[in-house]
UniProtKB/TrEMBL annotation:
Keywords: ATP-binding, Nucleotide-binding, Transport. PANTHER family: CONSERVED COMPONENT OF ABC TRANSPORTER FOR NATURAL AMINO ACIDS, CONSERVED COMPONENT OF ABC TRANSPORTER FOR NATURAL AMINO ACIDS-RELATED. The keyword ATP-binding applies. The keyword Methyltransferase does not apply. Residues 1-20, 311-351 are annotated as: Disordered. It holds the Pfam family ABC_tran. Residues 46-292 form the ABC transporter domain. The lineage of its organism: Bacteria, Bacillati, Actinomycetota, Actinomycetes, Micrococcales. InterPro entries: AAA+_ATPase, ABC_AA/LPS_Transport, ABC_transporter-like_ATP-bd, ABC_transporter-like_CS, BCA_ABC_TP_C, P-loop_NTPase. This is ABC transporter domain-containing protein. Residues 1-10 have a biased composition (Polar residues).
């Protein structure tokens, strides 16, 4: 795994100082005050204030204050319907809030359309991948480049200049395809890829924009266990290369293994945040996920087993139903099985 070094200034942003930080081993505190909903971070890349979105009478998102730490991997977790995807949609310009402000690297993104958000260095993927099935893998990759001058009318007039740019885009795309082990699929239609390969393609395509913040909406959903480790490694690599990652995930294996920081949403609000091991023990988190099953530690493998036993005797248990969410993933992991490739999930994405 490559380890990029940076030259951060006091706040951690790239600057003139010469001290280097390895993002993978940086142990400086993430928060500058005790971990709690809305706590300040040492070096936030994204700051959201009073962001709200209602659908009819439901407050889907009601985030008073949230900072996302730079150069870290943050997991956004919460039960089904907590507002995670809606919050992603708002932050990335795929939906408009009823109120609120948010800044990315100090620049307000309120009202900025999604394609400009991506150009500014903040990209996202979707729960249901949005790769173009009728285009080849390489064509999909080229679509991820942020400036498609080759598409413009002026192309005819400045063919040589744009031709050079097109070659750069293709070179960049080929490099990423190799990294994501999709180079052998270069000329295949995206529709022919497995669910996991489509996830990888979407992630690789997002990197065509040279982002500073990568937002992944349920990267593990529909991914075959054979590709799980590779996906985790790719996410870790993003961090080692200096990117910040924010991901929504129900898969607690992924959260426990790669997140530096966890933010918990329930009913639109941030109800807890902190390091993974601490958050999994937080009463608000346990309440949000488990209701009456308070006495289990989701951060420990034995905790999941204990929960499975409790739930098997519980008539109201959702395990085994379409609503099982986090519980099903955790228990499946214990069984050594994973979700089926391309499993159908009742989810919605941004338009
Ligand atoms: N376009 C929409 N129209 C009406 N209601 C919506 C719309 N999008 C989301 N909602 C509602 O907003 C709430 C939050 O949904 P959202 O999809 O953001 O939750 P989530 O935390 O991402 O859930 P999941 O983990 O199941 O994906 C839910 O009650 C949902 O039904």
């Amino acid at each position: 795994m490559s380890m990029a070094n940076a030259t951060p200034d006091e706040s951690g942003t790239a600057g003139a100082r010469t001290d280097t930080v390895d993002y993978m081993t940086d142990t400086r505190p993430i928060a500058s005050e005790p971990a709690a909903p809305g706590c300040r971070k040492r070096d936030p890349i994204l700051v959201a204030k009073n962001v709200t979105r209602a659908f009819g009478g439901i407050n889907a998102v009601d985030v008073e204050y949230l900072e996302i730490p730079r150069h870290k991997i943050t997991a956004l977790i919460g039960p089904n319907g907590a507002g995670k995807t809606t919050f992603f949609n708002l932050l990335t310009g795929f939906d408009q809030p009823n109120s609120g402000e948010w800044t990315f690297d100090g620049t307000s993104l309120h009202g900025v359309p999604s394609y400009k958000v991506a150009r500014m260095g903040m990209v996202r993927t979707f729960q249901l991948t949005k790769v173009m099935g009728k285009l080849t893998v390489i064509e999909n990759m080229r679509l991820g480049a942020t400036r498609q001058e080759g598409e413009k009318l002026s192309k005819a007039l400045f063919k040589n200049i744009w031709g050079g740019r097109e070659r750069d885009i293709t070179r960049h795309a080929d490099g990423l395809l190799e990294k994501f082990k999709l180079d052998a699929k270069r000329e295949d239609y995206a529709a022919s890829l497995s669910g996991g390969q489509r996830k990888l393609l979407e992630m690789a395509r997002a990197l065509m924009a040279d982002p500073r913040l990568v937002m992944l909406d349920e990267p593990m959903a529909g991914v075959n266990p054979a590709l799980t480790q590779s996906l985790l490694d790719h996410v870790r690599n993003l961090k080692s290369e200096g990117m910040t990652v924010l991901f929504v995930e129900h898969d607690m294996h992924m959260v426990r293994n790669i997140a530096d920081w966890v933010v918990v949403m329930a009913e639109g609000r941030i109800v807890a945040e902190g390091p993974p091991a601490e958050v999994m023990k937080d009463q608000a988190v346990i309440d949000a996920y488990l209701g009456a099953h308070h006495d289990v530690d989701l951060g420990a493998a034995e905790g999941i087993e204990a929960l499975e036993q409790q739930l098997s005797q519980d008539e109201e248990s959702v395990v085994g139903t379409a609503d099982e969410g986090i519980l099903g993933h955790a228990i499946t992991e214990q069984d050594g099985r994973g979700p089926d490739e391309d499993e159908g999930r009742d989810r919605k994405d941004a338009p």
